[in-house]
Structures are given as structure tokens and as C-alpha cells.
Amino acid sequence: MMKSQDILILLKLDSLHKSDSVKSEDFSVRALAAATGISKTEVSASLNRSIEVGLAKLDRKNQLPITNSKALLEFIVSGLRYVFPAKPGAVGRGVSTGFEAPGLSGLLSSIAEYHYVWPDAEGTDKGQIIAPLYKTAPYAARQDAKLYRNMALIDAIRLGDAREIAIAKQELEASLRE
Fold first, then answer.
1. DSSP helix/strand/coil, 17
2. Which CATH architecture has domain 4-83?
């Protein structure tokens, strides 16, 4: 059974593979744990689950885990909002997400009075609080801009209406295919 941290790990793998300065040791369980704030045990279990269901595989050349981007996108668009729904809560301080995240705010003009934020003591934005897909998402997002953008797009899918979901899907698809 998939867990929400699996999506965070898969998006981190995708980000690493598309980075120019990545080294093979960046794919180790220890490095993935440090980059995402998820324990080494959970990272290892997450990789195993993702490989088992076909959302990841081991590269034939170097045995590094890689994301099955097509299957991941299909799962995110078709099922994620039902398996891991987002429910806006009270107004608070945190890290912007959804279409209010840096780099996404120009994609859709928002009529909402408040933005969506992940609760985070280090966050400087104010908005309606939503639980991140996984509790360490704000930490991981501060470490990796591409990961942050993709996690924010996932929140746009989890929270959006049909038009917002279509835009987020298009942007996420482009990001995963880069």
C-alpha cells in the first residue's frame, strides 16, 4: 500500500535525475533521508513499495532508483486527491503552496482572499493551512526548488477545481518530462 511519503521520495528522485550536478551517492538511502527529512528506514521501505507497484525501478546500467514518470503522473492526476485529500483549515503562517507557490503564482489569477500554506515555523507566508502531502515537505522544499514546484502543483491538483487541475496537470507533466 502506497504512503504519502512515497510521492515525496519519487518526486525527489525525479528532481535528482534532472539535476546537472548529481552524483550517484545522492541516490543512497542516507542521502535521500537527509534531503527529504524522512527516516532512512522509511526511505528504504518507500523505494521498495514504489518499485513493487511500478512507480519506480532500478536503472539497468547503474542500479540507481528512477521514477516511472508516466505512471507517477497518471497516479497523481487520477487518484491522489482521493487517496490523500487536502482540507483547508484555519489561517496561519507557513510556506506557500498550490498556485501561490513561487514560480506558479502567475499561472492562474486567484480570486481567493487567502493563499494556501503548509504550516511551518520558518514560513513567512500567511494563508489557509493545509496539511502537506507529507509532514517533511516544507523542509524538503527548502532544499530543492524543483521538488517544491512539483509538490505545490500536486497541492493544486488536490485542492483545485477542474480548470486548476487541468493547468496543474499540464505543468506537472511538462516538469516530469523535462
1. helix
2. Orthogonal Bundle (1.10)
